[in-house]
């Protein structure tokens, strides 16, 4: 006979803690927001927000290309959430679709039953993907999609080929698997990372070939098609074509990370399409959520997927997570892809992006001592400043040059802060090369928005470096 469980102390009724309501959140002032951010979210990040002046801003609304702050100031968004806002903020068709989905009381969690929305989304993603990139896994973040990409590739490569090649200055996410193929101490910290991976310079085909030749246990190569965090770094078509040929020759699976550069940002649905090659596995995220929700996808060639999975025995090891393919995110992504094509946004990224790049090159010619390089494709654009010492009068250069490494990022910081303060323009930085400003406006960006951006940027650079530094320092004091 079972021994009866001893009775525990009588439980007191549950009391509601001191909670804030949605109305409280909506009405929150900037000091309270700052205090709570510091107390509960990320005190370290607040330090940088203060430097840039971002901490004074409470966003009340966002629409199209603009944020609107607590004072009604309209801020032009050339940051675009690091490529998460292909459709801009609160695209009306996205809002409508999501409202209809809610009003119809559709089911969200598709673990017991299949979802017609997730099925249609997977169909559409396969339809947008060249070759036989047909098999889709739905997740919630770029990191999750890239984890799924590395997992399918690892299983398809087989147990004797566990090594992964990745690139210098790469960024593939912050979960441990993808962190292991992400370069840079900024993110790797001192975590105990996975695998016996090999790092090669990005864009160096000889280094790839040498690695393949030296290590027969390499099974996978993982590369961003355009490096975002690395400073908007591209590799030429020749590189990608040789890479495809080498992967075929050595039987290595190529995983193309399109989390940031995919979904039309460069003027093609996938950035690799510019080079006439197809990877074995790829991943999308960011803008796939239409700027309203978390949605990501891993897409694998059918034969790779079938080698890795595809049987009842392997069904559960890669089945989606709790929120993978959730209803509202699937319906949002479905609508997002339709909007991209129906509104001609991919063509617009190519055309208006080329205009943006041409205008920036014009400014480079006007300010050659400040702007070192303009690069990128479509609306994935990097603008690199010279090292700080090089922007100063010749007599000061040698003395300041010794500080250049320490000062990396300072000019981008000054310019970013003043663009926001004085010209109502938001831009982003790149993590690894901090001399680079990253411009990833929504794909709805028109020439008029480019003109507004260029006008503000031109006016700021026209002040000259000394005035820019002085104005920034003053902004810190005030
Ligand atoms: C190229 C690339 N891969 C992966 C990721 C990770 O995506 P997430 O932040 O959604 O996990 C990012 C995010 O910035 C990215 O830029």
TrEMBL record:
SUPFAM superfamilies reported in the protein's UniProt record: PLP-dependent transferases
- Pfam families given in the database record: Aminotran_3 (PF00202)
Q: Spell out the InterPro entries in the cross-references.
A: Aminotrans_3, Aminotrans_3_PPA_site, Class-III_PLP-dep_AT, PyrdxlP-dep_Trfase, PyrdxlP-dep_Trfase_major, PyrdxlP-dep_Trfase_small
Q: Which domain of life is it from?
A: Bacteria
- Could you state a single Gene Ontology molecular function term? transaminase activity
Q: Which UniProt keywords apply?
A: Amino-acid biosynthesis, Aminotransferase, Arginine biosynthesis, Pyridoxal phosphate, Transferase
Q: Which GO terms of type biological process are on file? A: L-arginine biosynthetic process
Q: Answer whether the UniProt record assigns the keyword Nucleotidyltransferase to this protein.
A: no
Per its Swiss-Prot or TrEMBL entry, what cofactor is needed? Answer: pyridoxal 5'-phosphate
The UniProt entry's sequence similarity note says: Belongs to the class-III pyridoxal-phosphate-dependent aminotransferase family.
- Its name, as the record gives it, is Aspartate aminotransferase family protein
The scientific name of the source species is: Roseitalea porphyridii
The top of its lineage is: Bacteria, Pseudomonadati, Pseudomonadota, Alphaproteobacteria, Hyphomicrobiales
């Amino acid at each position: 006979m079972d021994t009866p469980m001893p009775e525990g102390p009588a439980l007191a009724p549950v009391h509601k803690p001191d909670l804030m309501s949605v109305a409280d959140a909506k009405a929150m002032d900037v000091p309270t927001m700052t205090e709570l951010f510091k107390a509960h979210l990320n005190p370290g990040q607040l330090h940088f927000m203060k430097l840039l002046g971002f901490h004074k801003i409470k966003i009340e609304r966002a629409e199209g290309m603009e944020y609107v702050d607590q004072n009604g100031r309209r801020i032009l968004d050339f940051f675009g959430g690091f490529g998460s806002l292909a459709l801009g903020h609160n695209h009306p068709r996205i809002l409508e679709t999501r409202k209809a989905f809610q009003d119809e009381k559709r089911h969200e969690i598709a673990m017991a039953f299949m979802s017609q929305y997730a099925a249609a989304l997977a169909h559409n993603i396969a339809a947008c993907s060249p070759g036989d990139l047909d098999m889709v896994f739905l997740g919630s973040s770029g990191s999750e999609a890239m984890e799924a990409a590395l997992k399918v590739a690892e299983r398809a490569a087989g147990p004797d080929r566990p090594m992964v090649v990745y690139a210098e200055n790469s960024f593939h996410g912050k979960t441990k698997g993808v962190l292991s193929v992400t370069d840079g101490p900024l993110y790797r910290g001192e975590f105990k990372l996975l695998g016996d991976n090999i790092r090669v310079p990005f864009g160096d085909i000889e280094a790839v070939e040498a690695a393949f030749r030296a290590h027969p246990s390499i099974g996978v190569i993982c590369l961003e098609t355009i490096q975002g965090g690395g400073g908007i770094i591209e590799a030429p078509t020749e590189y990608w074509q040789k890479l495809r040929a080498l992967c075929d020759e050595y039987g290595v699976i190529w995983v193309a990370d399109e989390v940031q550069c995919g979904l039309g940002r460069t003027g093609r649905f996938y950035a690799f399409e510019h080079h006439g090659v197809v990877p074995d596995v790829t991943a999308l995220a960011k803008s796939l959520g239409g700027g309203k929700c978390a949605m990501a996808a891993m897409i694998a060639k059918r034969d790779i997927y079938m080698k890795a999975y595809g049987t009842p025995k392997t069904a559960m090891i890669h089945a989606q997570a709790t929120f993978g393919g959730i209803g509202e995110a699937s319906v949002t992504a479905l609508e997002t892809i339709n909007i991209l094509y129906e509104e001609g946004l991919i063509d617009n990224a190519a055309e208006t992006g080329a205009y943006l790049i041409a205008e920036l090159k014009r400014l480079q010619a006007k300010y050659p001592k400040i702007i070192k390089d303009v690069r990128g494709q479509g609306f994935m654009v990097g603008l690199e400043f010279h090292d700080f010492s090089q922007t100063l009068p010749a007599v000061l250069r040698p003395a300041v040059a010794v500080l250049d490494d320490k000062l990396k990022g300072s000019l981008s910081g000054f310019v970013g802060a003043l663009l926001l303060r004085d010209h109502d323009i938001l831009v982003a930085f790149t993590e690894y090369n901090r001399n680079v400003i990253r411009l990833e406006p929504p794909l709805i960006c028109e020439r008029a928005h480019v003109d507004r951006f260029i006008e503000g940027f031109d006016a700021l650079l026209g002040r000259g470096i000394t005035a820019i530094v002085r104005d920034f320092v003053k902004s810190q004091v005030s």
